[in-house]
Amino acid sequence: MSFRYNLIQKWTKKVYRKFNPIPGSPWTKGAVKDICAINLVPPDTLKIFFRDCIKRLEKLKGGDIGDYLEFGVFNGSSIGSAYMTAKYMNQSINFFGFDSFDGLPDGTDEEHDILQKGFYRCPFEKTKECLGRRGVNPDDITWVMGVYSESLTDEAIETHGIGNIGIVFVDCDTYSSSKEVLNFLAPLITSPAIICFDDWRLYDMDIKGTGEYRSFNEFMEKYTHIKAKRIRSYNRKSESFLLLPEVTPSH
Questions:
Q1: What does the pLDDT look like over 89-121, one tens digit per residue?
Q2: Are 251 and 189 in contact (CB under 8 A)?
Q3: What are the structural domains of the chain?
Q4: Is the pLDDT of residue 87 over 90?
Q5: Which residue stretches of the chain are H helix?
Q6: What local confidence, expressed as pLDDT, does residue 137 receive?
Q7: End-to-end CA separation in angstroms for the chain
Q8: Pick from 107, 144, 105, 102: which is nearest to 121 by CA?
Q9: Handedness of CA 67, 118, 183, 48 (dihedral sign)
Q10: Measured CA distances, 110 to 189, 203, 209 (Å)
């Protein structure tokens, strides 16, 4: 199963986006007056989306919908919105934030001209400050810090008790990083879960066949016991799926 575009779909999307381009991210790197004030997606938009995700999973899994995992935290605007939504809905969810807090790594050849190393760097202490200003206690979140090639390990799963996956928010932009995330998640997806790709269409990376579009399609083709259904996402550049594993994979 995959969600790859055929030639007609690619051509149609290219023509449409020529006149209706996908909005770019509002910030990349460099000095800013207040990094905490940057909202890559409006918080209210995300809160509505996360509310719908929680309701969808409650219907499928009951009261315990599973953990929230975010890959690519930046200043905490997304994980903060999810946290506040869960709190409002009286949902007891474990939150996990995965980030090096050193910005993006190098991208692929298709990405290096638009996603440069160091984009979205926000030091961890600053991220905690930003979360506090949003009404979020950063100590309520389990932080897994480091580059993904070193931090996404079986040891991390065991150490932090990561098991029941509910909502996954992938905002690490590049093909290489999102691929590592998906390979890490594969054995953990044993019940319905929702995965959100924040930059699926950013800079037309889906049409170019790279980024999160490429990594997810490779993931779906490799892990055939997992089926996916598109669900309504929160803006034009993102894509979200309901993941439905048919069987529990053997380890």
A1: 999 999 999 999 877 666 544 444 556 666 777
A2: no
A3: 7-24+35-245 (3.40.50.150)
A4: yes
A5: 7-19, 43-61, 77-88, 124-133, 148-151, 154-160, 175-185, 205-208, 211-222
A6: 98
A7: 21
A8: 102
A9: positive
A10: 30, 11, 9
Q: Which two tokens stand for residue 142?
A: 């389990």
State both tokens at 39. 């909202």
DSSP 8-class letter at 91 = -
pLDDT value at position 105? 65
In this predicted model, what pLDDT tens digit does every residue of 181-205 receive, in sequence order? 999 999 999 999 999 999 999 889 9
Q: Cα separation of 103 and 173, whole Å?
A: 11
- For tokens 């309504």, what's the residue? 232
Buried b vs exposed e over 191-219: b needs ≥16 C-beta within 10 Å?
bbbbbbbbbbbbbbbbbeebbbbbbbbbb
Output the pTM of the full model.
Answer: 0.93
Length of the chain in residues, anyone? 251
Residue 237's contacts (CB-CB under 8 Å, 6 or more residues apart) are 22, 23, 198, 199, 200, 201, 202
Q: Crossing angle, helix 124-133 and helix 77-88, to 10 degrees?
A: 40
